[in-house]
Design brief:
Layout lengths: L19 H7 L18 H9 L17 E7 L3 H17 L4 E7 L6 H11 L3 E5 L6 H11 L5 E4 L11 H10 L4 E5 L6 E2 L4 H17 L12 E4 H7 L1 E2 L4 H12 L4 E5 L1 E2 L13 H20 L8 E2 L7
Parallel strand pairs: 1-2, 1-4, 2-3, 5-9, 6-10
Antiparallel strand pairs: 4-7, 5-7, 8-11
Length: about 325
């Protein structure tokens, strides 16, 4: 398995204490009050902290001309028959228009609504589409990991929710960050300036802000949206780090461990939109949000105090190939 070696941080330090940028961001106070150098006024908080504290590693930057990275988009599905066809098309169109050779890998947990049949028919017409139908295994994190393993030959692997809450037209922008910014992991953020969340209820938005704000304070303030799930990353990095968790907490774990390894994480703002069709698999009321939030809190505290996750929830490169 590939071993990652942390890089030494740059000597330049932020002109403000560690927690202040996060507190100001939670309170929505403009960052210009931090007194950043003029040359940094136009960039986001994450970019500022990366410039000040971490040298971009470029550890896995491929020797390819811009627009030539090979990209695999992993779409983990369960009962998304009304969305999956248009979502596949939108991803392929966006990446092809940007000049990226692309494939789409749909990992479906034997959806009773016929999602896998829709993908099977599409794959018969387009060799860039691949279906992995799972009849004995379930779960978001394991589905993403199955797709990562299956994406042989890809330089960058992306994934997103399959309900159009995350814009497929932004996937090339995330991939481009791995070229132009040396990002090892690029992630969409609802909480950078220019981002927003109009997909969830007021209670859901409030809990998400609390969880992400607390994650930034407890773990590392260089990430604003730890629970995003809208990700593009270099495949060797993913194979080295693995994924841990059984639902959305995997994203908190992945981003924090990438930062701890000295890798470069870059965020890009996006608008989280309401789902187009079908029913949500996430919580839809306050009790549901609180049950889901408990796992996030447990993950954050476990990372902070070094408590290992359950071995059965750790997906890594030694696991069986699909």
């Amino acid at each position: 398995m590939l071993t990652l070696t942390p890089e030494a941080p740059a000597t330049l330090r932020p002109p403000v204490p560690h927690a202040i940028p996060t507190i100001l961001r939670i309170l929505n106070i403009p960052l210009r009050f931090l007194g950043r150098p003029n040359c940094l006024q136009g960039i986001s908080l994450l970019e500022y902290r990366l410039v000040c504290r971490v040298k971009p590693s470029g550890k896995y930057l491929m020797n390819a001309d811009p627009g030539r990275l090979r990209v695999a988009v992993v779409l983990p599905t369960f009962n998304e028959a009304g969305n999956i066809g248009p979502l596949i098309d939108a991803n392929l169109q966006a990446l092809t228009a940007a000049g990226y050779p692309a494939q789409v890998i749909v990992v479906d947990d034997d959806s009773p609504d016929g999602t896998w049949q829709v993908v099977e028919n599409a794959s018969a017409r387009d060799c860039r589409i691949r279906l992995i139908r799972r009849t004995t295994e379930r779960g978001l994190t394991s589905a993403i990991w199955t797709g990562i393993q299956a994406a042989e030959g890809a330089d960058v692997v992306c994934w997103m929710d399959c309900d159009f809450s995350m814009p497929p037209e932004m996937v090339p922008d995330l991939v481009r960050l791995t070229e132009t910014r040396g990002a090892d992991v690029a992630v969409g953020s609802r909480y950078l300036p220019g981002g927003s969340d109009v997909a969830h209820s007021v209670a859901g938005q409030l809990l998400s802000r609390v969880i992400n704000g607390a994650s930034a304070l407890v773990l590392d303030p260089r990430v604003t949206d730890y629970t995003s799930g809208f990700v593009a990353a270099r495949r060797p990095v993913l194979l080295a780090l693995g994924l841990r968790g059984d639902y959305g907490e995997y994203c908190i774990d992945l981003l924090y461990r990438a930062l701890k390894q000295g890798l470069t994480v870059v965020e890009l703002p996006y608008r989280c939109a309401p789902r187009r069709a079908g029913e949500s698999k996430t919580a839809t009321n306050l009790p549901g949000y609180l049950r889901r939030g408990r796992k996030y809190v447990t993950t954050v505290l476990g990372l902070r105090f070094g408590v290992r996750s359950r071995p059965e929830d750790f997906y890594h490169a030694e696991a069986r190939q699909p």
